[in-house]
Amino acid sequence: MYFVIVYLSSTDNVDIDKQFLYGAISNALEIWLLVHISSKTSFQFDTCPRLLHKLKNSSNEARLHRTVEIQSVRMYQNRIDFNILGLFSLKYCLLFNMMSEIMTYLVILIQFNTHRMTTTIMTENNYK
């Protein structure tokens, strides 16, 4: 996705900041899409036992009743959880944690940048 955006916006004088911004936006969209799809899939999986019990209640077969009971217990005990190598769970809280970390580092970078600008102005004023 990043390469498509860069190709569409490519000119001879493409600013490196714009390329970085396009890459960051495309990566953020890809991560959001992965989290969204995995969360929706987990939600749908959590609704399956309820649907199975509705099916069980509409039938009078004993074999179907036992099969539904076994499968619904399995589904409740073995919930689907998408994760990345067992380290990060792909849920919406991952996005919130990432955004809070990004904001923290941005605040630190802005503070360093304003400190550098004030020292530059002070040294320029001292030499005049």
From TrEMBL:
Compartment list = Cell membrane
Keywords for this protein:
Cell membrane, Membrane, Receptor, Transducer, Transmembrane, Transmembrane helix
**Membrane association type:** Multi-pass membrane protein
Q: Name one Pfam family in it.
A: 7tm_7
Q: Does the keyword section mention Acetylation?
A: no
One Gene Ontology term of the biological-process aspect is: sensory perception of taste
Establish whether keyword Glycoprotein is in the entry.
no
Transmembrane segments in this chain: where? 84-112
Name one cellular component (GO) term: axon
Positions in coiled-coil regions: none
Major subcellular site: membrane
Name of the protein in question: Uncharacterized protein
